[in-house]
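Key result, reporting period 2: structure in, sequence out.
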């Protein structure tokens, strides 16, 4: 059983309104989203595009519902822009998150990512040159130190369609960064990339000491295989239903929860499952995920 004093449960707003494709769920309001998160039994949320940009306004609305902000996605552009460009944007994001009550910032290098493009996510993902590896990892080291200035932590989100996607790339990223650069372990992206859950479990086991934040994302393997066979893009896959909540897809989260428990993981576990809200009602799927987590972990 996971310790409720150490592990808190959140859910991401991307199931209500998808910032990667804002037309998905454009009718869903911020208030509906955070109210349904609370009603489904979650006490945390990441930040979405419809959330108030004034941290005081945001904090008041979520405090009313017993929700805390636990993290927000932060795109970095070390491979495509001068370093100052990312650093300036990071400091703004860090200070906003701090005021909103979060102590974690999840970064992902987007300089040459294809996740938001029409390119085939399996065939055209970037592979970093040695020079790019140095830019990304040294950049992250600097951002982690900037996070620490405010008593915050940085975790890196490995992601489909980016240069840090496969287990070997995650190994190299962690070898080339300092220990205060943590890993945001997203189960869905690893199962998607490798085609089996054993690879995801192995990454978690190997790097549990660096894991600072967890995304509980499940996949429908049949849809992932279709994306691969038809050379589709990441976003085409999302529209088709590649992702869903834990308990609804093909991943058995039992070994994942076991590793977190055995290693005294302390932090947030965030249900994150973008799919078309017109097909998969976000509140219904939030309840489904919550019930599955309770059954598997007791939380
Ligand atoms: O953490 C995430 C944030 C999203 O914007 C992204 O595309 C999604 O797949 C994800 O895992
Ligand atoms: Co994620």
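The corresponding designed sequence is given below.
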């Amino acid at each position: 059983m996971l310790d409720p004093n150490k592990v808190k449960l959140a859910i991401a707003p991307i199931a209500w309104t998808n910032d990667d494709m804002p037309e998905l769920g454009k009718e869903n309001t911020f208030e509906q989203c955070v109210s349904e998160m609370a009603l489904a039994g979650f006490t945390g949320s990441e930040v979405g595009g419809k959330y108030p940009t004034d941290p005081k306004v945001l904090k008041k609305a979520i405090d009313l519902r017993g929700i805390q902000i636990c993290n927000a996605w932060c795109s970095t552009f070390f491979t495509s822009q001068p370093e100052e460009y990312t650093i300036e944007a990071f400091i703004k994001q860090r200070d906003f998150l701090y005021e909103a009550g979060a102590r974690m910032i999840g970064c992902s290098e987007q300089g040459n990512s294809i996740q938001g493009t029409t390119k085939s996510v399996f065939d055209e993902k970037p592979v970093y040159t040695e020079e790019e590896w140095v830019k990304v990892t040294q950049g992250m080291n600097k951002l982690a130190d900037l996070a620490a200035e405010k008593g915050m932590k940085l975790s890196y989100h490995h992601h489909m369609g980016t240069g840090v996607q496969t287990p070997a790339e995650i190994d190299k990223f962690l070898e080339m960064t300092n220990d205060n650069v943590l890993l945001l372990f997203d189960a869905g992206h690893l199962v998607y990339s490798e085609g089996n859950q054993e690879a995801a479990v192995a990454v978690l086991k190997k790097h549990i000491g660096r894991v600072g934040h967890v995304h509980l994302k499940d996949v429908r393997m049949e849809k992932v295989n279709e994306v691969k066979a038809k050379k589709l893009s990441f976003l085409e896959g999302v529209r088709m239903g590649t992702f869903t909540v834990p308990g609804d897809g093909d991943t058995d989260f039992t070994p994942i929860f076991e590793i977190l428990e055995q290693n005294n993981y302390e932090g947030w576990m965030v249900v994150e499952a973008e799919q078309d809200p017109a097909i998969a009602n976000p509140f219904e799927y939030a309840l489904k995920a919550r019930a599955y987590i309770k059954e598997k972990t007791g939380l």
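The chain has a mean pLDDT of 98. Residues 157, 186, 215, 217, 272 surround cobalt (II) ion (ligand 2) (CB under 6 Å). This case is discussed further under Risks and Mitigation.
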